[in-house]
Amino acid sequence: MGQVVSQCTGPIFECRTGRESSGNHAANSRVPTSSSSSSSKRIQSMIENRSNFSSEAELNIEFSKIHWSELSTDSGTDDASTRLANREYFQVLKNHPEWGGFFKDINVVLGEKISEGGQAEIYDAKVEFADGRKFGYGYHVVKLMKGNNPLQAFQRQWPVGMLRNVSIDNSKGPLMYIKGGTMIDNRFGFVMVRQWGDLRKLIDLKMQLNNNRGPPFKIEFVMKVMNCIANDMTKLHNEYGIVHRDLKASNILLWSVGDGLPDENPHVKATVVDYECSVGVVGTGFWRAPEILQQLKDRVKNSDLEFTKMADIYSFGMICYELLTGCIPFEGYDFQAHDLFFGQERPNMLEDDASDRLYIIEIIKCCLEHEPLCRPTFSELLDISRLEPFQTMDFASKLELHRYGNKFYRVELQGHLKERNGQE
């Protein structure tokens, strides 16, 4: 049994120390470079082309297209002749016995467009709820779905865990900022509390202010954001049964009040968003785990793609990379170059003498493990961070200590590795 566990923990230590493995796991993996700072051709292009855009929002939308979500191309099976009109079907949704409370008649007046992605456009909005509460611009946004798909098609993209729980308990956690779904003319939209903006927007801004030199943040902010994301993802995974499928910096919103940027606010909070239509996306570029890219390479039908919680962990590792370097993962590579990952490559990371940054690099490497079961869970990330008596211990050692004696985990890993290696 111990030998089975060592197959997982061994490569983690090899990545941690930078030693090459005698096997294939680490031999082709990139290790941190000797550089102490980072720069981005994409950021440099933003700096040089800023004057060509009429507004900051227009600039951000154009340069965000590189990390827009890839949408499912499955057409569905419902016959157009049997579809209800959107307004009519919205009434059906409102009367649903289990999660009808999510759908509401909300009076919305759209303002300026402030963001855009592959699935939707984000607008500032004036909002009046059915109970008479009114809010002017600046308090709420509407995520207005793109395209002419009928509402019945959009419904297939919504995780039931969200629909069921927003109307029951939306006072805390990642669901608290969603106020419901409504119809605006003949288009469906999610009404949400407006926040400062997304994490990728802040990274881009900090890199521009730093003349395209990373790292963009102090370590305290990086650790705080990582902790917020891990907390939200633990809730999504363990309480609501939601696999995000498209975790990245642009899907993390930041709440901040007062003057100054969010990373300068000691009370800043980060929230995981854009899981509202998770079933309708197949991830984004190199934020996707190798097992997802393998399925895409094998031309698995979008609706049959198997996304697991461990795929979200891999994407979390890429967010940590964004936080630490300011760069997009594998910037400059073709997103279709899937073979890059089958050789178990990792993005270049900074090498830093500061122990706190080295610790984050260790976390990143563990999250980017090629073998899904070798990655930590979000619960483990939070638990390990609380191992105060072992603060001098590196992350991989903490993970091994945390899992030691977990019989269920070892049995599951043993069966998985035997199956993978064709053993009886």
From TrEMBL:
One family name in Pfam for this protein: Pkinase
Stretches for region Disordered: 16-46
Molecular functions (GO terms): ATP binding; protein kinase activity
A GO BP entry: signal transduction
GO cellular component: cytoplasm
Chain coiled-coil ranges: none
Composition bias type Polar residues, residue spans: 20-33
Domain Protein kinase: 108-391
Name of this protein: Protein kinase domain-containing protein
Organism: Ceratodon purpureus
